[in-house]
Each structure stands twice: as structure tokens, then as C-alpha cells.
């Protein structure tokens, strides 16, 4: 079978592995905490300022649009995760439904997504950590607190530090890290609830006027600007939604935990759908409270917008507490995505698309080698890149993966309607369609440079695939029967 058409059999995929497998130690509370921990993080604590700067008060619409697309993607993930409860997430689903080459592109995009998410969150954490230390009179020199994009900056040492700490935690074991994650998630949610409670008394409806100062925006077509000289929009509701999209995803990390879940047929759907519902409601309330409390211009450029809003309200102690909560709890996002990244690597290595030595499992039941390798890569990125650059490029990889999941949902429903589905997405044709169209529109709303970098990343990936992976996969060597 040609490499562009060969697919993994779902039934073969679910058969017992012929090598060591990870321990099934997680239940739905762990998965719900993993999802909320991954979703609630830099997006609402930091990128709310970036989004408000692009869209003004209409950032509320940006949150709603991003949440709608992610909710549909979550439903698609929930169905596919219960049909194929195996490590690998969208990569695994694409391998079984769309074929090996598409699966490689999706997996390669996921590597981009997870690596840059970890780096971006580490940079966001660093912003709060530096502000918190300054509040205690312990200011770090600029050379060690920011990357070279900032005047006087050399390396973002706090960002590198927190990645190293979380990596060490993951190496201890899945259940141990998941239990601590659940505790930190509670701290993070309480901090956001406290912010809303403090900000609402200062609510001023005039801050929502003008509501949409930069317009709705239109898709960015890099070819249009380059070849016609017509400038494309860099602001507006859609530009903000394309960035704020970063604030919603994270539920896909739950699907990478399928192999380590005790009852994947039940717990995966609870974790994925439940975490999205909780976080969407929380985001809209926090965004409304933030804009109502202070004019958008006052916090749009801040690396710690929620803490800044409280300080400007005269709530210095509360601002310090919010910053401390972010410093303590933002690592839950790092934990979730470093966890997911290592499982993506693991799935691709098991399939032979990456060197199989990466699939080694330690005595604690974790893929130690790929976890450490991932940490080194993301630490290097976090040490030198800006938050908005990292978030924008991470979104491109995520949008590609989510669109593929939408396609997988529709194709599998049409190809194999009789297959047992323990969770069924309602109105599957609409859920899949909104996921696909929404992801395409958001991708076209990213800055043109991000679109070009994403295309370049995938060109590099295809060179690797045609040069090595296509000839060394388990299907290529006949080690597994194709579907």
C-alpha cells in the first residue's frame, strides 16, 4: 500500500502492546484537573491583555468565538478518544482514519504546538514571577529576566528554571504529578474567583465604549499583501480570537493520557467536555470583570494584566496574592503540556516514524528520555523568545491538529458508522464542520509571518518524512497490518 494511503487498523491499535506499557493510574478527577490545569493559564492570566489590545472590549466576542470552535473540537476529541484510547491524541486518530502521511503532518504540528505552548507558558510565568519578586524587593537584573528581544536582556532564566522543575516532577511518575496538579488547579481557580470578586465592585460600563474600536477584522492572506501591496489587518476581533485561541486549548492533552486511564471509555469524555465547560464560563466572567474594572489601554501591554488591574484599583495586597497564585499554579499548564508532548513523541516512536529508542519506558512507568529531550528544546525556546511570538506559532500547530480531528470525526462516522462509540458527539456533522471551518478561519487570521513559519516547519517535516520516516514505520516494514 502506498505510504500516502496506508492506515493503522483501529482494532490492531487497541490490541495489547508487545512491549512495556505505561501504568493505568488515572481516573476522571485527575483528567478533569489535567484539562482545567492545561486550559486555565497564560491565556487568561497574560494573553487577555494582548487580546484586548487587538480588539478592545470586543475581546469578549473573541473569547466567545474561540470558545465555540474549541467546544466543537472538544466534542470531536471526546468521541475519538473513546473509540481509540491510545497515546498520541490527534496524531493517532489521523493515522487510523486519514493515513500515515497526514498523521505525520499532524504529529509534526503537535510537536510544534506542545513545544511552543510550554515555552510560552514558561515566559508568562516568568512575567508574574519577576513582578512578584519585585514586590518583595528582590528585582532580577534584566539580563537574567528577559530574552535578547528586550533591551539589555540575555536569557529568561526564570522561564528555564520552571521548565526544569516541572520536568523533574514528571519524571517522578504520572500519578504523583497528577495529584499535585489537582491541588495547584484549585489554587489557580480560587485566585481567578478572588479577582472577579474584587474587580466587580469597580465595574464601569463606560469602559466597554467604543466596544469594537478596531473592527471585526478579516482573514490575513500573506500572498495578497506580498504580491498586491495591499496591507492586511493586524488587529480586530478575529486577530484577537486567533491569539486568544491559545487560552482555550489544553483539553487535547487529556486525550494523550488514554493509555494511563483506568476507565478511558467513561473518564476521557468527562475530562475533555467537563474541563471545556468550566473554563469557558470562567474566562467570560474574568474578561468582563477585567474590562469593567479598568480601561483596556491601561493593561493591554502588561505581562501581568490581572495583577496590574488590582494594583491600579489600590488593591496592592490582593495584586501580590494574585501574582503569587500565578507563580504557584501556572506550572500546572507546563505539567499538562510537557506530559502531552512526551506522549506524542512516544506514539510516533512506537509507530517507527521517530527513532524507536525514544519509546523507552522508565522503571517508574514514564517515557523519561523523551521527557528530558522535550524539556531541553522548550527551555531553549523559552529562554530567548517573546510570549506573543510563541503563542501565535503554537496556535498554528494546534489549529492544524484540531482541523484534522474534525475531519477524522466526519470520515469515521461515514466510513464505519457501526463501530461502538461509548461517547457520541451530538450533531456530528455540524460539530466536525464548525471545527474545520473555524480552524481554517483562525489560521488565516494569524499574522502572515506566523503562517509562513508554520509552512516552513511543515516543509522541514515532510523532508524528514520522505527521507527517513516513510521507510522506517512499522507499516512500511510490514510489522503491523494496515487497515
From TrEMBL:
Membrane-crossing segments per the record: 31-52, 58-78, 154-173, 180-203, 223-248, 268-293, 318-340, 366-387, 393-414, 426-446, 452-471
Superkingdom of origin organism: Bacteria
Membrane protein topology class: Multi-pass membrane protein
Pfam families given in the database record: AA_permease_2
InterPro entries: AA/rel_permease1 (IPR002293)
Signal peptide: none
Cellular compartment(s): Membrane
Name the record gives this protein: Amino acid permease
Amino acid at each position: 500500500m502506498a505510504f500516502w494511503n496506508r492506515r493503522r487498523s483501529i482494532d490492531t491499535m487497541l490490541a495489547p502492546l508487545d512491549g512495556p506499557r505505561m501504568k493505568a493510574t488515572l481516573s476522571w478527577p485527575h483528567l478533569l484537573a489535567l484539562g482545567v490545569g492545561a486550559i486555565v493559564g497564560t491565556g487568561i492570566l497574560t494573553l487577555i491583555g494582548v487580546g484586548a489590545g487587538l480588539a478592545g472590549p470586543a475581546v469578549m466576542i473573541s473569547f466567545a468565538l474561540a470558545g465555540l470552535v474549541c467546544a466543537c473540537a472538544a466534542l470531536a476529541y471526546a468521541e475519538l478518544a473513546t473509540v481509540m484510547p491510545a497515546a498520541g491524541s490527534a496524531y493517532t486518530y489521523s493515522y487510523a482514519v486519514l493515513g500515515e502521511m497526514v498523521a505525520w503532518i499532524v504529529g509534526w504540528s503537535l510537536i510544534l504546538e506542545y513545544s511552543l505552548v510550554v515555552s510560552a507558558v514558561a515566559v508568562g510565568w516568568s512575567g508574574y514571577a519577576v513582578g512578584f519578586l519585585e514586590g518583595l524587593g528582590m528585582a532580577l537584573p534584566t539580563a537574567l529576566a528577559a530574552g535578547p528581544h528586550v533591551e539589555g536582556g540575555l536569557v529568561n532564566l526564570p522561564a528555564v528554571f520552571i521548565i526544569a522543575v516541572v520536568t523533574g516532577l514528571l519524571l517522578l511518575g504520572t500519578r504523583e504529578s497528577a495529584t499535585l496538579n489537582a491541588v495547584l488547579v484549585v489554587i489557580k481557580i480560587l485566585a481567578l474567583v478572588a479577582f472577579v470578586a474584587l474587580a466587580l465592585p469597580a465595574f464601569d460600563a463606560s469602559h466597554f465604549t467604543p466596544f469594537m474600536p478596531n473592527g471585526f477584522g478579516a482573514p490575513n492572506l500573506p500572498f495578497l499583501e506580498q504580491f498586491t501591496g495591499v496591507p492586511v489587518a493586524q488587529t480586530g476581533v478575529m486577530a484577537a480570537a486567533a491569539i486568544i485561541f491559545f487560552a482555550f486549548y489544553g483539553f487535547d492533552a487529556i486525550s494523550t493520557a488514554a493509555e494511563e486511564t483506568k476507565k478511558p471509555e467513561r473518564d476521557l469524555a468527562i475530562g475533555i467536555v467537563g474541563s471545556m465547560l468550566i473554563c469557558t464560563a470562567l474566562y467570560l466572567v474574568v474578561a468582563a470583570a477585567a474590562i469593567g474594572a479598568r480601561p483596556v489601554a491601561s493593561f493591554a501591554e502588561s505581562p501581568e494584566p490581572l495583577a496590574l488591574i488590582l494594583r491600579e484599583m489600590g488593591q496592592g495586597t490582593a495584586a501580590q496574592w494574585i501574582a503569587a497564585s500565578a507563580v504557584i499554579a501556572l506550572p500546572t499548564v507546563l505539567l499538562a503540556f510537557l506530559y502531552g508532548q512526551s506522549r506524542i513523541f512516544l506514539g510516533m516512536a512506537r509507530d517507527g516514524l521517530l527513532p524507536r529508542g525514544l519509546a523507552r519506558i522508565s522503571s517508574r512507568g514514564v517515557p523519561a528520555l523523551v521527557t528530558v529531550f522535550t524539556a531541553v528544546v522548550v527551555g531553549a525556546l523559552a529562554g530567548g523568545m517573546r510570549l506573543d511570538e510563541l503563542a501565535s506559532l503554537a496556535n498554528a500547530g494546534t489549529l492544524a491538529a484540531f482541523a484534522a480531528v474534525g475531519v477524522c470525526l466526519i470520515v469515521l462516522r461515514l466510513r464505519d458508522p457501526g463501530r461502538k462509540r461509548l461517547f457520541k458527539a451530538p450533531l456530528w456533522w455540524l460539530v466536525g464542520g464548525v471545527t474545520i471551518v473555524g480552524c481554517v478561519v483562525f489560521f488565516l487570521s494569524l499574522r502572515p509571518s506566523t503562517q509562513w513559519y508554520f509552512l516552513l516547519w511543515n516543509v522541514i517535516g515532510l523532508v524528514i518524512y520522505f527521507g527517513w520516516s516513510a521507510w522506517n514505520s512499522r507499516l512500511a516494514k510490514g510489522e503491523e497490518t494496515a487497515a
